[in-house]
User: What shape does this take?
Amino acid sequence: MVKKIIKWLHYNHKTFWVKDRIISLLVSIILLSIALFIQKIADNYVIKAWWTAVWDILLNNIPARDIDGFIILSTLTFSFTIIILLIFKPKYMLFTIKSLALFVIIRSFFISLTRLGIQPHQITFDSNAVGFWLYDLLYNSKNDFFFSWHTGLPFLIALVLYKEKFWRNICFGVSIIFATSVIIWHIHYSIDIFAAPFITYSIYSIAKVIFKKDYELID
Assistant: This one.
């Protein structure tokens, strides 16, 4: 069974990766690297800058619950699931990577503009939690509120995989679960959550125009 899967993957990728698409993949990786560099600069800025916590009608009426173990494991599980899915469905890979890069760049700009401080009732991560070191390496930062990537990223993947009904519904479901979780845990303001789908859809729409050729592979 494993040999058949490997053989199928080899054939699927061999026929897909023509010269133009290999070049596009390299461009995608470079673009994502630049996006992550920009995000690092934005993260450093919002960590060092002085911010103020604000009133939030939801957070002030919902008791904070410590669910960091769920957040960490579910985020890592979702991330690796999408990576594996893209390996099995390479036609989605180029547009996904470039859309993600655009998402990261725009979000980095947004978090640098909004002066929101950590919510007083926020529960901090337990550094001894299973998978914390990997989550901390890949995702964890401070004061990066508007807008919620926990909500926006699964929503973006759902839009990219819209023609894949099963995965589309899974990703939309994950977006809702993550949105609820970060509200319960008080690591995001409610505006971060409710704005995320609208901003993410705009990013997706822009990506379809900018990366039209890659989008046509899945259209």
